[in-house]
Automatic annotation (TrEMBL), chain A:
Gene Ontology CC: one annotated term: plasma membrane
Domain of life: Bacteria
Domain Histidine kinase: 221-423
Protein name: histidine kinase
Organism, as annotated: Parabacteroides acidifaciens
GO molecular function: phosphorelay sensor kinase activity
Gene3D superfamilies per UniProt: 1.10.287.130, Histidine kinase-like ATPase, C-terminal domain
UniProt cross-references to InterPro entries, sorted A to Z: HATPase_C_sf (IPR036890), HATPase_dom (IPR003594), His_kinase_dom (IPR005467), HisK_dim/P_dom (IPR003661), HisK_dim/P_sf (IPR036097), TCS_sensor_his_kinase (IPR050428)
Keyword Phosphoprotein: yes
Annotated catalysed reactions: ATP + protein L-histidine = ADP + protein N-phospho-L-histidine
Principal EC category: transferase
Transmembrane segments: 137-159
UniProtKB/TrEMBL annotation, chain B:
Protein name as catalogued: DNA-binding response regulator
Keyword Nucleus found: no
InterPro entries cross-referenced by the UniProt entry: CheY-like_superfamily, OmpR/PhoB-type_DNA-bd, Sig_transdc_resp-reg_receiver, WalR-like, WH-like_DNA-bd_sf
DNA-binding residue intervals: 124-224
GO terms of biological process kind: regulation of DNA-templated transcription
Keyword flag Ribosomal protein: no
UniProt-listed SUPFAM superfamilies: CheY-like (SSF52172)
Source species: Parabacteroides acidifaciens
Keyword terms, alphabetized: DNA-binding, Phosphoprotein, Transcription, Transcription regulation, Two-component regulatory system
Domain OmpR/PhoB-type span(s) in chain numbering: 124-224
């Protein structure tokens, strides 16, 4: 949800409540005011009528006109209560239009000089409350929507103008890639908060870049410092082995040393690869057709493991394209497919299935179901293979994590299955 | 054939010199940037084995200097940096090959031979040992003039043996050179054993004189006894 929509949503609900409450209060106040005014005018009217009636007894009759009507009739003294004015709401039928309209009335009693008691009822028409309510609601709705619209417009304009530096910053951050050459942030602003934000982000990015470079350098130095002594050891052993005076026993010792050293070299390389992947030192990406890559790797491995007589079936039900670093894609698939060969049994099978979004490698094996929770950890060896560095699946996992590829392990019908799901 | 080795690590330099001298090359060496620059200025070499990280300057600068002098020396870069950028940069600057430390001496030897051959023979490159003649560019092999059909891996294996005759080659070195990156987790080198067995069978059937001899526990050696 954009900040704009969010703000508007948060404003619209309270606004509706406030306007409704205000409308109720407005309505009640107006009605009360009208009643008070009407009552007052009725009281005035009463005084005038009574005064006139007392002076001239011919006026002690009913009177009806458009605005005001009053009725006078005599009542027994016992019923008369001189001290009380009674106000009441009622309706009156307009004879011509055949509709009833609301009216307000005043009922009171008075005594003439000849000790006769009369009851006076004055009726006056008032505003129609229902019309009033309807008008209020319509007015309110119009006010509400125009307010929301105006607020939307204002928010839009204000956000576009005052939050412009924020959006510039977002765009820049979106384009920023650690380890690649980035354009410097150009975001001039007079607003202090944004200025601080700009500086903070630039500072973080600068520090990050520095750390990244330091780590990259460390990894490279570590490689250099270790590779050279290893090269010396390995090459010295090779020179020794070429000495014709070497006995078979010595040669076999040299061979075992040589193999151990080669193991260290491989482990060093694998660890370097892991740190490079985790440091995101493979920024270049390209669009890769996995089907083609799989068939190439599979052909190579097939030749290598010819002696195991493994039957491989590759099922390409769709073309699978993905965007990632080419050498990492190759490393990922090689590690996965090679595992299927290494941990296979003699005369076993491998099934590779490729769909538009998934790649599955399943292999037969004598090993039971593997522990999926630790399978992808470093140095997690679930087999007896002494040549394995124990890093193959850790590399698979870290490459997969880098490109948000899902890796799953399943064991079904005696087949160990690794499934990659691409976004 | 004159070869210059530029490497700052004394032991490694001595080993390389010793190994290449066995191949009857004239080998000279330099330990730093200045020393190497002097030697390059004064002499012509057929091949220069160049370490990138040198005291006194970057090996790539040396390569640039070499190209400025318009010298035709072949250059093989040897580096501990296994980074693609350096590799691409080195080859762009005109290096003929790139080798990552640690390497096997047999591999270095094979690469040097390849570079030298490419330099000497402008046309087709062939390599001959006894009655075996190989044409690596078009993947052809002849024994006594008769073509022998080998699969790709067998061909690569034989090529490695032919470029390193009489040299004991470890199984690791063989595997790495023929299978490259695929090797780093392989089990027991059984596949080397089975591939070499097939190759030997085919060579013998075709009547090749050189023989691939197994050296127990270590690896193999191609020997050719002149009769």
């Amino acid at each position: 949800m954009r900040l704009r929509q969010y703000t508007l949503r948060n404003l619209s609900v309270p606004l509706l409540l406030i306007l409704s409450a205000w409308a109720c209060a407005f309505y009640i106040t107006i009605i009360r005011e009208i009643n008070e005014e009407t009552d007052e005018s009725l009281t005035n009217h009463k005084m005038l009528i009574i005064k006139a009636a007392l002076a001239d007894s011919t006026l002690l009759t009913d009177h009806v006109d458009i605005l005001t009507q009053y009725y006078i009739h005599e009542i027994p003294p016992a019923k008369a209560d001189l001290s009380k004015d009674v106000f009441f709401d009622s309706t009156r039928v307009v004879p011509l239009e055949m509709i009833s309209i609301p009216v307000r009335g005043l009922r009171t009693c008075f005594r003439t000089s000849d000790d006769k008691y009369y009851e006076l009822t004055i009726i006056t028409s008032i505003l129609e409350k229902e019309d009033m309510v309807r008008a209020t609601v319509i007015g309110l709705a119009i006010l509400y929507f125009s307010l929301v619209f105006c607020i939307l417009l204002v928010i839009h304009l204000v956000f576009r103008k005052s939050l412009h530096p924020l959006y510039v910053l977002f765009d820049w951050l979106k384009k920023y890639r650690l380890g690649k050459t980035n354009i410097p942030l150009r975001n001039e602003t007079k607003i202090e908060e944004f200025h601080i934000l700009n500086e903070a982000i630039e500072d973080v990015v600068r520090r990050n870049t520095k750390l990244y470079n330091m780590q990259k350098q460390f990894v490279e130095n570590a490689a250099h410092e270790l590779q050279t002594p290893l090269a010396i050891c390995i090459n010295k052993l090779e020179l020794m082995s070429e000495n014709p005076d070497c006995t078979e026993r010595q040669l076999s010792d040299i061979a075992s040393l040589h193999q151990t050293l080669s193991g260290i070299v491989k482990m060093n390389k694998s660890l370097l690869l892991l740190s490079r992947i985790e440091n995101r030192q493979f920024p270049e990406t390209s669009r890769i057709e996995m089907n083609k890559l799989v068939s190439g790797i599979q052909e190579n491995l097939d030749e290598m493991y010819e002696h195991k007589h493994i039957t491989v079936t590759v099922k390409n039900s769709a073309q699978l394209f993905t965007t990632m670093n080419e050498s990492l894609a190759s490393t990922l698939l090689t590690n996965l497919i090679k595992n299927a060969y290494i941990h296979n049994c003699q005369d076993g099978i491998i099934q590779i299935t490729i769909t538009a979004h998934t790649l599955t490698v399943a292999n037969s094996s004598n090993a039971p179901r593997l522990n999926a929770s630790t399978l992808f950890d470093r140095y997690e060896r679930q087999s007896r293979h002494k040549e394995s560095t124990g890093l193959g699946l850790a590399i698979v996992k870290s490459i997969a994590a880098l490109y948000e590829i899902q890796v799953e392990y399943n064991h079904d019908k005696q087949l160990h299955e690794f499934k990659l799901t691409f976004k | 054939m004159k070869i210059l080795i530029v490497e700052d690590e004394n032991s490694l330099r001595d080993i390389m010199v010793c190994s290449l001298e066995k191949e009857r090359y004239v080998v000279e060496s330099a330990a730093d940037y200045q020393g190497a620059l002097l030697k390059i200025n004064d002499y012509d070499y057929d091949c220069i084995v160049l370490d990138i990280m040198l005291p006194g300057g970057n090996g790539l600068l040396l390569l640039e200097e070499l190209k400025k002098m318009k010298k035709k020396d072949s250059v093989i870069i040897v580096s501990a940096k296994d980074s693609l950028e350096d590799k691409v940069k080195g080859l762009d600057l005109g290096a003929d090959d790139y080798l990552t430390k640690p390497f096997h001496l047999a591999e270095l030897n094979a690469r040097i031979k390849c570079v030298l051959r490419r330099k000497q023979q402008d046309g087709e490159m062939d390599i001959t040992i006894a009655n075996i003649t190989m044409y690596p560019d078009r993947h052809a092999i002849y024994i006594d003039g008769n073509q022998l059909i080998l699969n790709r891996k067998e061909f690569d294996l034989l090529y490695y043996f032919v470029t390193n005759p009489d040299r004991l080659i470890s199984k690791t070195a063989l595997a790495e050179s023929v299978w490259g990156d695929y090797i780093d987790q392989a089990d027991n080198f059984d596949f080397i054993y089975s591939q070499v067995k097939n190759l030997r069978k085919k060579l013998k059937a075709a009547g090749a004189l050189p023989e691939i001899k197994a050296v127990y526990g270590f690896g193999y050696k191609m020997i050719y006894e002149e009769r």
